[in-house]
C-alpha cells in the first residue's frame, strides 16, 4: 500500500505530500527522527510544542504590560518619588499634622504605660522621695491629660466616632494633650496659660499688703511692705530676702489657714492648681517633691522642652530666655523650696509672685495693672 501512495506523490499530487507527511509525522511522532528531509513537518512540531509551553507560562506568571503602558508606569513612579519632597514644601501643614499625630500616638501610649507603673507604685505606699523627677512630672501632667485624651480615644472607636479626630484638631488646646501639639502650638498655648496665671499676681500682692497690717512686730511689717514696694517698682528680689519671710508663712498672717477664700483662689489660679483647699495643699506639696527630685538630679541634663515646662509650672515665661537664664531661675526656686516644709507650704504658693513678678519676660505678658493703691480688695 505504501508503494502506490509514494508513486502518486512522485507523479505530482503535491497537495497530498504535505498532508500525508504531516499526518505521518503526527502518527509516528515518537519514532520520527528530527533529521528527516521534511522541513515543514519539523516546523509544525516545534510550533505546537512552543504553544503548549507558552500556555503553561501564562498560567503562573504575570504578563508584562505593553511598551506604552510600561513607559507611563515608569514615569508615574519616578514622578511620585521625586515630587514627595516638593509636595511637603507646598503643603507643609498637612505633613506636619500627619507627623505630629503619628508621633503623638506613640508618645501617648508610651506615657500611658509609664503612668500606670508610677501610679501602681504610689498606690502601693512608696514615698514620693523615692521617685525620679521625670516620674513625678509625668504623674502630675498625665493625670490631667488622661481624662481628656482617653475620652477622645473611646469616642473614636464608637460607630461613626472617627469624626472626633478632625474636631480635636480644630480645638487642640481643649481636646488634645501636649503629645499632639506642634512646637508652635506648644509655645502659643504656653503663653495663653501664663497670661491667665500672671493676671492674678497683682491681686496676690494686694492681699499680702492687706494682711501685713495684722503683723504685730513693726520691723517685720515694714519689711513685708518694703518687699511689696520693690515688686511694684519691678525690682527683682534676692533669694535671701524671700527666705527671711519664712516665719511669716509658718503662722500668722500668711499661713494657708489664715488666708481668705479669694486669696487662696488667686494662689491656685496663679499656679493652675486645684481650687479646693485640701487639694491645693496636696498639689503644692507634690510640686515641692518635684523640686526636691530636681535638686537631687540637677538641671544640666534637662532638655529645652523640660526646662520650658518646669519654668511654666513655677510661674516664669521662658519665651525669649536663654537656657542659662532658665536654669538660674530654677536653681533660685529650688534653694528657696529646699527650706519649705508642709507647715510653710504657703510660701511655695506665693513664690511665683515673689520670684518672677519683675522679670521682663513675665512683664511682657502682664496686663496693665488696674490697682492704683495696694490694699483695695478686688471683686475678681
From TrEMBL:
It comes from the Eukaryota. GO terms for molecular function: ribosome binding. The chain crosses the membrane at residues 148-171. Coiled coil: none annotated. It holds the Pfam family LETM1_RBD. Residues 188-380 form the Letm1 RBD domain. Keywords: Membrane, Mitochondrion, Mitochondrion inner membrane, Transmembrane, Transmembrane helix. One of its GO terms (biological process) is intracellular monoatomic cation homeostasis. It is a single-pass membrane protein. It is found in: Mitochondrion inner membrane. GO terms for cellular component: mitochondrial inner membrane. PANTHER family: LETM1 DOMAIN-CONTAINING PROTEIN 1, LEUCINE ZIPPER-EF-HAND CONTAINING TRANSMEMBRANE PROTEIN. This is LETM1 domain-containing protein 1-like. It comes from Biomphalaria glabrata (Bloodfluke planorb).
Amino acid at each position: 500500500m505504501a508503494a502506490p501512495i509514494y508513486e502518486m506523490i512522485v507523479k505530482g499530487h503535491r497537495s497530498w505530500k504535505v498532508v500525508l507527511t504531516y499526518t505521518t509525522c503526527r502518527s509516528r511522532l515518537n519514532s520520527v527522527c528530527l533529521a528527516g528531509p521534511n522541513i515543514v513537518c519539523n516546523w509544525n512540531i516545534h510550533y505546537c510544542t512552543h504553544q503548549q509551553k507558552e500556555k503553561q507560562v501564562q498560567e503562573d506568571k504575570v504578563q508584562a504590560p505593553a511598551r506604552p503602558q510600561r513607559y507611563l508606569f515608569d514615569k508615574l513612579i519616578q514622578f511620585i518619588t521625586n515630587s514627595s519632597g516638593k509636595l511637603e514644601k507646598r503643603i507643609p501643614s498637612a505633613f506636619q499634622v500627619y507627623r505630629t499625630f503619628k508621633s503623638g500616638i506613640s508618645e501617648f501610649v508610651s506615657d500611658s504605660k509609664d503612668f500606670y507603673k508610677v501610679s501602681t507604685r504610689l498606690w502601693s505606699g512608696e514615698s514620693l522621695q523615692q521617685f525620679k523627677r521625670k516620674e513625678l512630672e509625668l504623674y502630675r501632667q498625665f493625670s490631667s491629660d488622661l481624662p481628656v485624651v482617653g475620652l477622645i480615644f473611646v469616642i473614636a472607636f464608637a460607630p461613626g466616632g472617627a469624626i472626633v479626630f478632625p474636631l480635636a484638631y480644630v480645638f487642640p488646646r481643649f481636646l488634645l494633650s501636649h503629645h499632639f501639639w506642634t512646637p508652635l502650638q506648644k509655645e502659643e498655648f504656653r503663653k495663653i496659660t501664663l497670661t491667665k496665671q500672671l493676671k492674678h499676681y497683682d491681686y496676690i500682692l494686694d492681699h499680702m499688703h492687706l494682711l501685713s497690717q495684722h503683723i504685730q512686730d513693726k520691723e517685720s511689717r515694714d519689711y513685708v511692705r518694703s518687699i511689696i514696694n520693690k515688686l511694684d517698682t519691678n525690682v527683682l528680689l534676692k533669694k535671701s530676702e524671700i527666705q527671711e519671710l519664712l516665719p511669716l508663712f509658718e503662722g500668722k498672717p500668711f499661713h494657708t489657714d489664715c488666708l481668705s477664700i479669694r486669696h487662696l483662689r488667686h494662689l491656685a489660679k496663679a499656679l493652675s492648681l486645684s481650687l479646693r483647699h485640701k487639694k491645693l495643699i496636696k498639689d503644692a506639696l507634690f510640686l515641692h517633691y518635684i523640686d526636691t527630685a530636681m535638686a537631687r538630679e540637677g538641671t544640666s541634663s534637662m532638655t529645652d522642652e523640660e526646662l520650658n515646662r518646669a519654668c511654666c509650672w513655677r510661674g516664669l515665661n521662658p519665651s525669649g530666655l536663654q537656657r542659662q537664664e532658665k536654669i538660674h531661675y530654677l536653681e533660685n526656686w529650688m534653694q528657696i523650696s529646699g527650706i519649705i516644709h508642709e507647715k510653710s507650704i504657703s510660701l511655695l504658693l506665693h513664690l511665683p509672685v515673689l520670684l518672677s513678678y519683675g522679670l521682663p519676660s513675665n512683664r511682657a505678658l502682664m496686663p496693665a495693672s488696674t490697682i492704683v493703691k495696694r490694699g483695695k480688695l478686688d471683686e475678681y
